[in-house]
Specification:
The complex is a heterodimer of chains A (297) and B (967). Chain A is mostly beta strands. Chain A contains two helices and 21 strands. In chain A, a hairpin with an 8-residue loop joins strand 10 and strand 11. Chain B has 967 residues and is mainly α. Chain B has a two-stranded antiparallel sheet with strand order 1-2. A two-stranded antiparallel sheet of chain B has the order 3-4. In chain B, a hairpin with a 2-residue loop joins strand 3 and strand 4. Chain B starts with 12 loop residues before the first helix and ends in a 7-residue tail after the last helix. Classes of the chains: A mainly beta (297), B mainly alpha (967). At the A-B interface, strand 11, strand 17 and strand 18 of A face helix 10, helix 11 and helix 13 of B. Chain A: It is found in: Endosome. Chain A: Pfam families: Vps26 (PF03643).
Chain lengths: 297, 967
């Protein structure tokens, strides 16, 4: 006897905001009538924090995972113990997305050390002989748009051998001059990061120019806090020996789920940075770092 | 049965004709007649005016032409209507098969933008693949699943769907990093095709991630410029895959929206449901996170069309962005082709967005200096590729971009483009592309400018003959100002003639021939031909250039239809002599002949044309050998016949005859030609007779005898027995008509004598068929002629008829066939006609047997005896048929036909004969196979005949003819 249990949300993109109602149906498909001991549905929003082994040692990282922070939680009983008729059964449900007290619904974010996730879970209890059925379904929460006006704060940059830090042998460095600008360092998350980079000249041919999007996650705990930067994605914007003094566009779409508006709470922080990485043909790596502030409007 | 006595019925043909005529006129106007068109009759020409002008069958007032067949076809020919409909439909079909009516308007609007005059990519494809080839070994480096950026960190809790996708991805990673080395070009193309297939399979089995990976890997291959000569072809192969992918994605999203009813073609964003939008958005996010630049560009360009599902301005915003992103590609060749692809997609999806096309071109110009940069030069040295060759690799891409830009572009824009090229120091490569892509009219109007620019180009980069080739191509389609034409030709030819390499030379010269033919006279063309001969003869260079030389001939033939002019060109025939490979030679001759037949309207006697044409035809004829296919022979023969029909020496008949003699000697291997020659000669004889108004002088009589002799000796050389037979008969008739009695006799005798040779089956259109029906037809025809052939004074009475009948008797007919008896039955009317006092027809100035014998009773009794023998034979046969149950049907048919002959030609006053007729009637009705309708008709006819003055005896007979009703 096969039964499938599924949760279908009304919105195709599964995106909800605080104050809205998460609506959908529980879909039950079975060939014969099905006996059960009750169907429940729960909604939960959690922040999972994990300490990186780098900053606090392996064991602490293993044991000391910070307790998850619950943002929202509610439960409803969809059906009392009984029978589901054969065929397709749809049970509609609605959850208001409201927080208790002064809690805020952070935006969904999938990171390495910080995860903010909202799930719906449907359980069907059954008799001893049959296995209980359950189904998870993630939905996405977008935080409330920022009220203050976003000031783009563009930034210009010039990279020459002289502007670099962290170099071992300044003399071995070939000559180059790279200019450019980012249209904004205060970015709207739904809009791409844009700008331009111009290779004015370079003694050694360029191999590649890349944009590296980096998340900086900070978790606070009893012993202090851990701050880790990891790469989200790396996008190549130039390949090979590009034409000199021709503006190459900088363009990167912020990936969904892996980015969220810059977040700063008492327990953890999620920040973003972008690196412009220039690889020269002799494998010199030149990186210019720009902190970004993401927001939603 | 032997006691049948034949008496032919006396006929008065004139009276019978008279009797028939008024009856024909008796048809009332309003009467039904199957051939009468439903129409208002023309009141002026018809006699029926006084009766009122409308036909009773219909009052429709259409004034259709009188011919019912042509009236059917008037204006509403269903085939041409279909053709017209499908022609207008065809471009629309390619758009979307399942398009609704709503979309039609939109589609039409789109077609306004890209019409049929835009040369589509598909036509360029093959050309590029054929042109850019390599013998070097290629490699494909596919490493599935190496883009780190795409894989989300596995530490997080991911939904099941994502997990399965990740697993799928891992699958691919294991052992999927593979490099295929040492591939030949064909292997490479096959591999790519395999990838194309696996893309489709992956898509069909819902492995979307895998499909995307394949596409990404493929487009990654485009950044590899090793074996650079092959790059354009590689581009073609790989963009095919991208096109497939783009189509798959678009179609899938489109079908997602087609519930409940399919999306109209002109849909807007509001018609698209959320799920479809979300899926589409997902694709774009996925592609935006592709690590490498080139795949990201290509794949996004491939699904550019999907932007329509998301928002109105998507395409409009994406195109300029992608255009700008291409700047990031360092290799100028790779970048140029990426631009070409973007333009191609852009033209397909949003042809109205011209700006990004221009932007692309300007960027391209901007990066041109890279070609001379170190990176490129180093690469060329490494791959041992010369700069000119490298530059030609660009042309397909640049040509395409410029073609997109130039398509229906205003003059101003083109001028601007030209100026920009000029500013770049008359870069030859660009100039070449400009000339090829811009409208020929535009180029032609500035031809002198272009020549100047070409001259200013530096020789090192791009060969000048290619530039002149491109210019020539434009000038072949559009005319430069009249005053400049000669200068242009001189300037161009000055360069062309200096090209050393014969292959390059002929490629360029071939193009300029068209311009020369178009605007100049035979003198200039002759000069050009002389120059080509001069260049191509050394070292037999022409052997490698047959296609080009053939095209030269074709072009000349397009413009010169006056063959006397053509052949008076001194160099034309020497030019033809360069075609020394047989097949090509024949091909060329054939094309000349085709044009000749099409355009030579008047018959000619011009010795120049005749000589040249004979030479050409002889070439074609001499190419025929034992291995030549029948179809080939037939078409060659048709062409030669076409020529022979065009030869006329007017009143100089003897010359014409001697031409035929010569032609016979020349074309002896092609039977259809010989047949035509015999026809020509026969016609010649008849023309002579017409000129002499039927009475020949001594000279003309000798001439027509010569004609007859010609036919007589030509016919035996034919192998087809039926052509021989019919030509003997025809020539015999012609000889008779020209009072050459002995010749006619000889022809007919010859025909009779070869009758036994007729095989029982012949091949008709490749199938073996019984020859019986053909033979019967021929014999009937022959019999009809025999009526007027006078008996030979030295041979006995009815020598030929007897001879024929003997042959018929001895001939081995098919088993179970009535053919022989049918011949006998049909011989009876002839004999009856021969026994009349005046014959039904005669030949002027030839005395037939009627005059020779003057109704001599001996002659008549001879005829009667013959008839009796025949009837005896027929009756014997009927008896034999009666023995067998199965053949009763044949017996009945045969009996009825003999009855018919007796009725029409026999004198039924004779009791025995009338008894025989009655018996035959009964025999034919014995088994009930006779068709009642025909029997009734026949009876009616007999009754009708019986009313006539001297036919009253039929009344008796008719009473004895019983009609059997079928039960």
């Amino acid at each position: 006897m096969s039964v499938t249990l599924d949760i279908r949300l009304k919105r195709a993109n599964k995106v909800y905001h605080e104050g809205e109602t998460v609506a959908g149906v529980i879909l039950l498909v079975c060939r014969e009538a099905l006996q059960h001991h009750g169907i429940t549905l729960s909604m939960e929003g959690l922040v999972n924090l994990q300490l990186s082994s780098k900053s606090v040692g392996v064991f602490e990282a293993f044991y000391n995972s910070v307790k998850p922070i619950q943002l929202i939680s509610s439960n409803i009983e969809v059906a009392k113990a009984g029978k589901v008729p054969a065929g397709k059964t749809e049970i509609p449900f609605e959850f208001p997305l409201n927080t208790k007290g002064n809690k805020v619904l952070y935006e969904t974010y999938h990171g390495v050390f910080v995860n903010i996730q909202y799930t719906l879970r449907c359980d069907m209890k059954r008799s001893l002989l049959a296995k209980d059925l359950s189904r998870n379904c993630e939905f996405i929460v977008h935080s409330q748009p920022q009220k203050a006006k976003v000031v783009p704060t563009p930034v210009n940059f010039t990279i020459t051998p002289d502007t670099l830090q962290n170099i071992r042998e300044r003399t071995a460095l070939p000559k180059f001059l790279i200019r450019g600008h980012l249209d904004a360092t205060n970015c709207v998350i739904s809009q791409p990061l844009t700008g331009e980079v111009v290779v004015e000249n370079s003694d050694v041919p360029i191999k590649s120019i890349e944009l590296q999007l980096v998340r900086v996650e900070t978790c606070g705990c009893a012993e202090g806090y851990a701050r880790d930067a990891t790469e989200i994605q790396n996008i190549q914007i130039a390949e090979g020996d590009v034409c000199h003094s021709l503006a190459i566009p900088i363009y990167m779409v912020f990936p969904r789920l892996f980015t969220c508006p810059t977040l700063e709470t008492t327990n953890f922080k999620v920040e973003f940075e972008v690196n412009i990485v220039i690889v020269l043909h002799d494998d010199h790596l030149i990186t210019e770092n720009f902190p970004l502030k993401l927001c939603r409007v | 049965m032997a006691a049948v006595q034949w008496r032919s019925r006396g006929r008065n043909y004139d009276a019978e004709l008279q009797r028939c005529r008024p009856e024909a006129a008796l048809v009332e106007f309003g009467d039904y007649h199957p051939l009468k068109p439903i129409m208002v009759t023309d009141t002026k020409t018809r006699r029926g005016t006084r009766k009122g002008s409308t036909s009773s069958s219909s009052s429709s007032s259409s004034s259709a032409p009188a011919d019912p067949l042509s009236s059917m076809l008037d204006g509403t020919d269903p085939l041409s209507m279909f053709a017209a409909a499908s022609a207008s439909e065809a471009p629309a079909m390619s758009h979307s098969v399942s398009a609704g009516d709503l979309g039609r308007k939109k589609r039409e609007k789109e077609e306004e933008v890209v019409g049929a005059d835009f040369e589509p990519w598909s036509s360029k494809r093959g050309e590029i693949l054929a042109r850019f080839t390599t013998t070097e070994k290629l490699s494909i480096n596919l490493c599935m699943g190496s883009d780190k950026g795409k894989a989300p960190s596995p530490g997080s809790a991911v939904s099941e769907k994502v997990r399965t996708r990740l697993e799928e991805l891992d699958d691919l990673e294991e052992g999927s990093q593979r490099e295929l080395l040492n591939l030949s070009q064909q292997d490479y193309a096959n591999r790519i095709e395999e990838l194309n297939q696996s893309l489709k399979e992956a898509w069909a089995s819902d492995q979307k991630v895998r499909a995307l990976k394949i596409v990404i890997q493929c487009s990654k291959l485009l950044s590899d410029t090793s074996v650079i000569q092959f790059y354009p072809s590689k581009f073609v192969l790989i963009t095919d895959i991208l096109d497939t992918f783009g189509r798959l994605v678009y179609d899938r999203i489109w079908t997602m929206c087609s519930d409940p009813r399919p999306l109209p073609d002109s849909f807007t964003v509001d018609d698209v449901n959320d799920t479809a939008k979300e899926t589409c958005l997902n694709w774009f996010f996925k592609i935006a996170s592709i690590r490498e630049l080139l795949p990201r560009l290509y794949v996004e360009a491939a699904i550019l069309k999907c932007n329509r599902f998301l928002n109105k301005s998507g395409i409009q915003e994406t195109l300029p962005r992608l255009t700008a992103m291409i700047r990031g590609i360092g290799d100028p060749l790779v970048a140029a082709y990426t631009r070409a692809y973007l333009c191609r997609v852009g033209m397909e999806v949003a042809p109205h967005l011209k700006d990004s096309l221009n932007r692309n071109f300007f960027d391209l110009l901007g990066t041109f200096r890279q070609i001379s940069g170190d990176s490129v030069q180093n690469q060329l040295v490494l791959q041992r590729v010369e700069v000119p060759e490298y530059l030609t690799l660009y042309s397909p891409a640049i040509n395409w971009i410029l073609q997109c830009i130039a398509y229906r572009a205003p003059e101003l824009l083109l001028t601007e483009m030209m100026d920009r090229c000029k500013k770049l120091g008359n870069n030859a490569l660009l100039l070449n592309s400009v000339m090829r892509a811009f409208r020929p009219e535009f180029v032609a109007a500035r031809a002198t400018d272009f020549i100047g620019m070409i001259k200013d180009c530096d020789e090192a980069g791009f060969p000048k003959h290619l530039l002149f080739g491109s210019l020539g191509r434009s000038l072949a389609c559009a005319d430069p100002p009249e005053s400049e034409r000669l200068t242009i030709l001189n300037e161009a030819w000055k360069v062309v003639t200096k090209v050393r390499n014969p292959q390059d030379y002929v490629n360029c010269a071939e193009i300029w021939v068209e311009f020369t033919c178009r605007h100049f006279t035979k003198r200039e063309v002759n000069t050009v031909l002389a120059d080509i001969i001069k260049h191509m003869t050394p070292d037999r260079a022409f052997e490698d250039a047959y296609p080009q030389l053939q095209s030269v001939i074709r072009k000349i033939l397009t413009y010169f239809h006056d063959f006397s002019l053509l052949f008076s060109m001194e160099r034309f025939l020497p030019f033809l002599d360069m075609f020394q490979k047989d097949s090509v030679r024949v091909e060329v001759c054939r094309s000349i002949m085709e044009v000749f037949i099409k355009h030579q309207v008047e018959p000619t006697r011009d010795p120049v044309i005749l000589n040249a044409m004979l030479h050409i035809c002889k070439t074609m004829h001499d190419s025929v050998n034992a291995l030549t296919l029948d179809d080939e022979k037939r078409s060659l023969a048709l062409l030669i016949i076409g020529f022979i029909r065009m030869v006329s020496f007017g009143r100089d008949f003897e010359q014409q005859l001697s031409f035929c003699v010569e032609a016979r000697a020349t074309f002896c291997n092609l039977e259809p030609v010989l047949v035509q020659l015999i026809h020509t000669v026969n016609q010649l004889a008849m023309e002579t007779s017409t000129v002499m108004r039927g009475s020949h002088s001594r000279k003309t009589a000798a001439f027509v005898r010569a004609c007859a002799a010609y036919s007589f000796i030509t016919i035996p050389s034919l192998s087809s027995i039926f052509s021989r037979l019919s030509l003997y008969l025809l020539s015999g008739q012609v000889a008779l008509a020209n009072q050459c009695l002995s010749q006619a006799d000889a022809f007919l005798k010859a025909a009779v004598s070869i009758l036994p040779e007729v095989p029982r089956s012949i091949s008709v259109e490749g199938k073996l068929r019984s020859s019986e029906s053909f033979l019967l037809d021929f014999i009937n025809n022959f019999l009809a002629t025999l009526l007027v052939v006078p008996d030979h004074p030295e041979h006995g009475v009815l020598y030929l008829v007897r001879g024929l009948l003997n042959m018929v008797q001895d001939y081995t007919w098919e088993d179970n066939s009535d053919a022989k008896v049918r011949v006998y039955v049909s011989a009876l009317p002839l004999l009856a006609a021969m026994s009349q006092e005046t014959y039904l027809y005669s030949i002027p100035k030839v005395d037939s047997n009627e005059t020779l014998y003057g109704g001599d009773p001996k002659f008549l009794s001879e005829i009667n005896k013959l008839c009796e023998t025949l009837i005896g034979q027929i009756l014997d046969h009927l008896k034999a048929l009666g023995r067998d149950e199965q053949s009763t049907r044949r017996q009945c048919a045969l009996a009825f036909s003999l009855f018919g002959v007796l009725l029409a030609h026999g004198d039924l006053r004779n009791n025995k004969l009338s008894q025989l007729a009655v018996n035959l009637w009964n025999l034919s009705h014995k088994h009930g196979y006779c068709e009642t309708r025909i029997s009734v008709r026949t009876l009616e006819y007999i009754k009708h005949q019986a009313h006539l003055p001297d036919m009253t005896h039929l009344t008796d007979t008719v009473q004895r003819l019983a009609l059997q009703s079928r039960t």
